[in-house]
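Provenance and format

Records in this collection were gathered into a single text stream. Each protein contributes a sequence line and a C-alpha cell line. The two records reproduced below are adjacent in the stream.
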Amino acid sequence: MKSGRKSIIFRAAAFLLCLVLLQPFGVRAAITEDQGIVSDPVSGVYRGLMLGDTIRQNLNFADLGGHWAKEAVSRLGALGIVQGYSEGGRYYYRPNQLVSKEEALALLLRTIGKEADAKKAAEGIEAGETVQSNLTFWSKGYLTVARRLGAITEAQLNDALAEDQSALLPMENFRRLDMATREEVAAWLVKLASAAGSTEMVPQYENQAIFRYSDWQNIKAEYLPYVEMVTRAGIMKGSGNAFAPKRGITRAEMAQAIRNMGQTLYRLRNITMKDGYVGHIADDTTLNNQTSKKERNYLVRNQTGQVDKLIYAEEISSDNQKTILSAPVLRYGTLSTMLALKEGDKVEYLVDDKGGLLYVSAKEPDQPYSFSGSLQPFDLDKGQIILKDGENSYHFTMTPSLYRRNPDQVALKIQYNDRFVPLASLPYSHRVTVTVKDKLVTEIYYQGDIIRTNEVSGIIKDIQLDFKYIVIETWDSKLLTKKYNASELTIEKRPYYENNVNSGYFDELFRHYRFDPYDGKITDLEVGDIVHALLSEEDEEYITRISASTNYVADFGRIVDVRDGGDAGSQITIRRPDESLNTYTVAPLVGVFYGEERSSLARLQAGQTVKLLINQAVISPGTLKETVKEIAVDKLGNQVANIYKGNIGLLNQAQKQLTLNHSYQLQYNRWDNYQASRVFQQNEQTKYYYNGQRVTADYVRKFLYSKDMTGYAVTTQFYSGEILDTLSFRDSRETMLARDRIETVRDNSRLTLEDRTAPIQTDDGTIILKDNHVVSFGSLLPPDYARVILNGENQAALIEVTAEPGNGSLQIFRGRIAKINEMQGFKLQSNAALKGMNWVYSPIKREFEMDHNTRIYSGEGFINQSKFLSYGEVTHTDKVYNIISDGAKANYVLEQPYLQEGVKGTIYAIDGDGIKIKDVFVYQRAQKKWVPLSLSNSYAVLTVHASALFFRENKATEKDSLKVGEVLRAMTTKDLIKSVKDSSDRTAEGYLFFVEQ
C-alpha cells in the first residue's frame, strides 16, 4: 500500500515538475511559406549534446560583446578548438592578445583533431625543473606532435623544449613563448592540414595571389608557397593591401583564420555543415515512473530541399536531476540555447557523424520573394524547376512536397487551387511564378488557364510533308505521331535571330537580322525545334496549332574547302582554332555577309575566317543534325590582341579614344608591363560593363572615375592597331587563380574547376576568351584548361581558355568509327578526349586525316592502310579505336580496350619479364586519385602489349629510351590493388605509357 502510494506521489510530483520546468519553452513565431515541411519525410535527425549547454556557458565571454570575431570564436569554441580564461567567476577570450608560437600550434593541432595525440605525447615528456617551464608544460605534447607532422623541425622542437627559454636567442632560436608571426601561422596551417589528409591545403609554388600585397617581398622565401595558399583560399587576407608577414596575430584573427578554412576544417574533423531555415517547431512530452522528458523538435528545410530534425531535450530523473541535451546557438549575435530558435530563422548548423548537433548559427530569415519566367523541362532527379527569363536560365530546387515520382507529377497552383499535374501535361514555355524561400521553391503558380489535356510539348524528331504527320518526343521521352491538315494548321515560330538563347552573343556575331512576323508555314519547322502543340478538340490525332522555337549554336574557323553541290547545297569544311575539322552542308539560299554587304556562297574561299550560325538538333544521344542558317565572313579574323587592366582616364567620344591609367598587360602568369597610361581606339561596337551590368560610355564618364575601380579591357586586332572590344569595371578585390581544367558548367552562368570546390559565378560583364576570340559562356566546355581572374568572392572578371602546358598539339581520343575515306581519313560518331586519367565525352563528330606515316593496329597486329576499309570481309566501321593525333592528323589508330585503370612508379629494372617499378601508386576511379599499392614492399611489373605506345614530353618514344629512376605511368585494364588482394599478382599489361619525370 505504501509502495503504491509512493508511486502515485512520485508521478504527481514528476508531472508538476514537468509543468514548472519543461512547459515554458517560449513563444514560437508562425510561418506559412512551407506548408509541406510537416508531411515531408525526415532525412536526418540530430540531437543536442549532454555537454552542449555547459559549452554554451563557457563561451559567454565577457570581453566579446559585439566583437567582429564573435561568430568565429563561438563556432570554434563549440568544436573545442578555442578556449577562454576564467577570472573572478567570469570567462574572457582576450581577443586582442597576441598568440604565442606554442598557442598557435596548439590551436592548429586542435583544428585538425590531434588534441588527443598531443596529450598522449605529453605523457612521455618529463616535467620541467623551473616554475616557468611547468606553467607551460601543457604545450610540450603539442610541440612534439607538431614536429612529428612536419610543422616544425627537430632543431625547433629541441629549442622549444629547452628549460630556460630566456637563454635562447630570439633571432636564431625557436622560443615557444615568442609571438607567432603571420607568415609562420600560414605555413603551419597549410602543413598541418596537408599532413592530416587535406588535398585542398597544399603549398602553391606558382605565385599569383600574393602580388596583391604591397609588402609581398617582405615574406620569407620559404613561406611564400604557404602564404600564396592561404591567400588564394581566403583564409588570411591581410589588411590595408598588406599582409604584414612579420607582425603577430591576435586570438581574434587566429579564430577567424581557422573559421575561414570552411569545408576543409569540417572534412578534417568529420563534421558536416548544413544550412536551411526552421519551418516548424513542435513539442513532445513523455511521463513515466522513472523520468519526465520533454523534447522540442525543430524541422529544418535544408539546402537540398530535404527535412532535418534538430532535437533539444530536458529530462528529470526520479531524484530530480535535470539533464539537458542542447547545442550552443548564436542567434542574431547573442549566444543562447536552442530554445532561442524561432520558426523562420535562417540557420547554419554543424553535425557530427554520430548524429550529434554541435553548433547552430541563426540569422534573420530571408524574405520570401516571387520570380517569374518561362517554364522549361523539369529535372526531377535533382528536384529542380528550370525557368528562363530572357537569355538566362535559372535552376531552383523544389521542396519535396511539390513533386511526386512514379508517376512523375508536379504541384501547381492553378486559379488558386493546388493540383498535381502529370509531367507531360505541364505548360512548358508558358510563364509561371514561383515563391522562393531561402533558395527553395515552396510554391509554383501558373498564370494561365487551366491546363488542357489536349496539349503536348517536346522536340520535333521527324516531319513528313508528303504524309502530313509530325513525330514529337515529349519531355517524358514518349514518341507521339500527330497528323495535320495544312489548311487548318496555325504555326508560330520565333525566328532564329529573335531566339532568346544566347541572343546577345548571336546579335554581335550576326548583325543583319530583320524582324519578321512570327506566323509561319509547316516548311519553317525543323527537326530539333522545341514545340508546344494544341490538339484538335474533335480528334486528338490532329494538331491545330504549333508554337516553335529553335536551338542555335555558333561555330567559327578558317575555311579549308568549299565544294559546290548544286541544288543540294554546298559542302564547307572549316578548321577550328583547336585544329579540328568540321564539315557542314549549306543550303543554296543561306545568307552570306561580308561586313555589311550581302553576298553569295560563290565568294567563299579557302583561308577566309568565317562564323556560322547553326541549328543543332539532338536526334539521339551522340547524334546531331546541323543546319547552317547564316555565314559571316570576318575580314580581319577578329583575333584578340591583348588584355589589360587599369583605372579609367580620359574618355574622348569625339575622337573615339579612351585612356587607361596605371595599366598592366596580362602576361603568362601575372599582370606585367606597367604603363602610366595607355590610349585605345574605340568604335560603335565597344561594350562597357559595371559589375556585370551593361552601361553606356556616358555612364562610364560620369560615375566610374575612381582609383578603386578596376577596368578589365580586351582589344582586338585592326588594320591601324588595337581596337577596344570590351571594358568591364569591377570594384572588389582581385584574385588570380592557378590555371585549371573546367570540371562543370551549369545554369548558363556558373562553372567549377577541378581543384577548387567553390563554384565560380559569371555575369554579362565577365570577359571570356577562347581560341583567341571573345566568346560567350556557352562556348566553355569541360575539360577546357583556363585561367580565371576573380574580382569579388567567386565572381569571375575574366576567363581565358589556354592550351595545357606541355601538351603541345598531341592529343589522345577514343571513338567509334562512323565513316572511312580510304587512304585519306575517317570520321568518328562521337568521341572522348583523354585528360589525365579520365576520358571526357563529347557528342561532336570529329574528323581525322591520314597520311603515309599513320600506323593502324587492328586485331592481332599493325595493318596496311589499304586494309583499313568500311566494307569487305573485315570492316573497321563501328569499331572503337584509340587515336593519337597531332591536330587533325591521326598518327596512330589503335584497337585497344577501354583503359580506365592506372599504375605508376619509379623504374628500377627493365628486363625480359617487363618494366619493374617501385613506390607504386594505383589510380582509383571512384575517388579520382592515386593511392599507394601497399605500405611495404611496394613494387609491380608492367608488361607491354603489342599495340602499346610510349610518350615522353608529349611525343611518342620507344621503350628502349626508358631509364632506371624515371617515373612511369601506365594505362591498363587491371585494378592492381584488387589483383594483389585476390591473387598476389603484381603484374599489369600496359597499353599507353607516359614518362612523367
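Adjacent record:
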Amino acid sequence: MPPRREGGRGGGRGGGDGRAPSQEWRGQEEEFRQGRGRGRGGRNPDGRGQGGREGGGGRGAGAGGGGPSRAPLEAFPPLGDRRQQQIPPETSQRPRTIVSAAGSQRGYGGTPAGPSAPVSSSSTGDVPTSSKALVPPKRPDRGTVGQKVTIRVNHFKMKVKDAPIFHYDVSIHPAVGSKGIARALERQLVSQYRASELNNLLPVYDGSKSLYTARRLPFEQKDFKVTLPEEEGRRAREFKVTIKFAAELDPYQMDLFLEGRGAVLQAPYEFLQALDVALREWPMKSYVPSGRNFFDPSFGRLALEGGFEAWKGFYQSVRPTMQGLVLNVDLSAAAFYEALPVLEFLKKSLPYFDPSRGLSDGDRAKAKNLLNRLKVEVTHRNIPRRYRISGLSLRPTKALTFTTDSGQEVKVVDYFWTTYKHKIQYPELPCLELQGRKTTYLPMEVCKLAAGQKYQGKLNERQTTNMLRFTCQIPAVREQNIKTLMSNVHDFQQNDYAAEFGIQVAKSMTSLHARVLPTPSLRYSSNQITPSDGGWNMMRSRFLRGGVIRRWTLVNFTRLAREDVDAFISELIQRCVAVGVQMDPPVIPPSSGRLEQYDTLLRNAVRNHASKSKPGEGLQLVVCLMDAKHQIYGDLKKLCETELGLVTQVCLKKNVMKEYNSLSQYLANLAMKINVKVGGQNMDLAQDLRLMVPSILGKPTIIFGADVSHPMARDDTSPSISAVVASMDWPSAVKYLARARSQRGRVEMIEHLHDMVVDLMRAFFTHTRLKPERLLFFRDGVSEGQFSDVLNNEVQAIQRAFLTLQPNGDYCPQITFVVVQKRHHTRFFPADNNVVSNNVRPGTVVDTEITHPREFDFYLCSHRGLQGTSRPTHYHVLLDQNGFRADQLQTLVNSLCYTYARCTKAVSVIPPAYYAHLVAYRSRLHVDSVAAGAGSSSARAAAAECRLPEVLPEVRNYMYYC
C-alpha cells in the first residue's frame, strides 16, 4: 500500500485531514460527514482533499497535489461547474435528453419535444406513466468476436399449420378453487358433449378461464350442465359451465413477428399460450403438473428426510426465436410430500414429536405451517374421501365438540367411537381443521397425506445437498435423457392434441455456431494474470490494494481450545499479510461463549474496545467462529450491521480445523472476502472501462445491479426486499456500495428505486468527484411477462432521480438497462466431446438462432461448469441510449464476470446482479430476525409491518455483504 500523506487540519470541529480523490475507493462517506476524512494520494493531478461538514479550511496533500477541503454535497453541482466535477469541456455542451416514449425524446426543463407528457420530478416511490410505452430496442448487429464453435441446444423446431386457433372464455358456477376440479369438469364436458355439441372437436383447456379449439364451435355462447361424479373422495356435484367465444388467433401475426416484418413489436402471446396449452394437454393426463413442469416418480425419486422426497420430471415451453417457433424441453426436479399418515409425517419432520404428549407451542406452529392447505385422505372408512387442511384446532381432540344436524352437541372422540368404532389413540393432539363453509375437524390419526403434492417451502442444507446430487447430470447424460424423453413421452405421432392443432415437433436438438469470447487479463499489485478455463491461481500475487486492519477482534462461539483459536488467528494474519492486507494482531483479546450469548459477547467486545480507543475509532472487523450454520447467523448479522456498526466475518469450525493444504485454500478465500469488507481491492481488469469501450465508457460510468427477494411460497404477509448496488470506482467497476428497502410482498417492481439511485449516485460523486454520464443497469429476477412494467416504471424512476439530483433538467446520463435471467431452461451441449468437464467453454456466447427474433439479447456461459450441466445466463436489453454494439456489450459483460470479489473464478452472472442478490438475501435475514423477535404468534405480521432495519454507515460504506 502506498504511504499516506496527511493534509492540513481544517478549521472548526468539523475540519479533517484532506483526502485526494483517486481511483481507489475507501468507502468512508460517513467520515466525510463527521469530519474524519483521511488524506490519501491519488492518480488525479488535481486531487482534492475532503474535510468534514463544519470544517472547510483543511487542505489535503495527495500524490497529485493538495486541494481544498470540501463538504459532501446534498445535490450535484451545476453541470457547468467544471471546477467541482472535473468533466471534459465538451461534455457540458452536449444536449441532454430523456426517452419518454418509443422513438421520442424530450428535453429537461423546457417544453416537450414530442407528444409525451412531462416526467414528474417527485421524489416519492410512485412512478408516473408516460403517455407512450417504451419498447426494447432492435438488435444492433450480430457479434463476431471470438472463436467459433459448434454446440447443440435443447430447442426443438416446430411447425404449425397455417390456420387460426379459436379462443373461448370459460366460466364455472358455482366457482371452483382448484385447477384439478376445473380440469375434471372440462374432461367430463368433452366426454358428454363432444359428439353432440362440439362438432367432434378436441378442445384444450388451461384449467382456468381459457379454452382453445382448432376450428370454430357452432355457437357463440352456450351453457352446459355438467355433473362431476363421485371420485377420489369428491361427492357428486352439478355445475353450470359457460363457454363463450372470445377471439380468433391469426397465425399471420406470429409470422410477421418472427420475420421482423410489419408493426408487430411484441410476440402474439395469446397464440403462444394456445400452442403451449395444446402441447401440455397430453402429458397432463399422465403426470403431476406444476406450471410448465410435469413430474412422476417413474422418472426417478429419492427420499430427502423430514417426510419429503424428490421427484424427477421435465419442463416444456413454446418459445419464439430467430429460427422460428421452438419447443424448449429440459429435465427438472422438485420436492414432494411423501404420501404418509399425518402422524408418521410429523414424526419425520419434527425431531421431538411425541403424539402421546401433544404438541408444544413451537411444534404446533411448525406443524401448522407444514400442513396448511395440504390434501389428506381419510383411512377410517371404506369410502375414500379427500379434504384440504385449513389449520389446526386450538384445543386438543379430547376437548372438541360439534353440533349435529339435530342440534345435539357431541364430543369428537365419542362420535368416532359411536359411528366408526374407532377409539382415538392420541386425544392430546389437536385436530385438523378442514376447508369448507363450516368448521370441520378430523383427528390426525385417521388422515394420510395425498400423493403428488409439491412442497413449496425451503429445503434445509442436507435436503438441498441430497437434491443436488440426485439431479446433477453431466451434459452428455442430460442430453441423452432429453432425447429419450422426446422419443418416448413426447411421441407426437400418438399425441391426439398435437394432431388436432396441426403441430409437428422435430426430434433433434438445434445445432448452431457459438463463439468463445477472449479471456480478459487481470491486474494484481505487481503482476498480471490471464485466467485459464475460467479460473486462475493468485498464489504468487498480492491484492491490488490491500486493506489496513488495525482494530479487530475474534469471538469464539465454539468449544475450540484457546490454543486452536490462537493458532487460527496467527495463520489468518500470516495469510492476509502474504496477499497484501496489513492486518495487526487483535486489538482486544478474543472472547468465548455460547452462541446464544452472541448479543452480550458482541456488545462487550464493542465496549471493551471503546474504553481503550479514541472516539470514532471503532472496530473495523469482528471474526466470529461458529460450529455450523445456525438460525442465529441472521440475528448476529442484524445486530452487528444495524445496531453495533460492525463488519463481521463468520467462520465455521469445520473450515478452521482443516488440514494444511485445505486450510491454506480456505484462508486465501477468507482473505479475499475480508479485504473487500474493509475497503481493499483484490484485483481489477488489466484493461479498464475507458479502453474497453472508449466511445461509451470513456465518460464517467456508474454500473448498477438490482434484485428483488420475495417471501417463500404460501407466506402472504412478509414483505419483499429490493436491493440495489452501484459501482464507486470508475474507470474500474469492482467496488460496489449497496442499498436495500422493504416493500409490499410479491411486488416485483422496485418501489423505492428513485431514492436508492439518488443515494448511490451521490455516493459515486463523493468517492470520485465525478458525475456519471453513463449508467448501466443490470436487473435480475424479471420474467418476460414483466419486461414492459419494469421498463416503463423503473426506467422512469431512474430518470426522475436525475431531476432530483439536478432540478434544472440539464443532467441526464445515458441509460442502458439490461435484464439478467438465470431461471430459464435453455442448455448448451458441446459438439466436441473432448471439452474439459463436458461443458461448453467459459465465454461461450450465442446471439443467433435461439435468441429473440428482433430484440437485443444474448446467452452467455461465462463460467466453467464443474458439476452438472452449465446454465447460460440470458441478457436482454430493454433500453440502450448508449448505443452498444453486440460485441461491445457481450465482451464487457464477460470481462466483468472475472471481477467477482469472493473467488478466483469467472462467475455465471455479472457481479453487480450477483451482489444485489447477496444484499437482498442479507436484508431478508434482517427482516426475519425482527419478525422472530416478535414471538411465534405474531412473527409474520411483524415482518409485514416492520421497516427494513437501516444498515449503519460504518458498515454500508463497505462491501459488507460479501
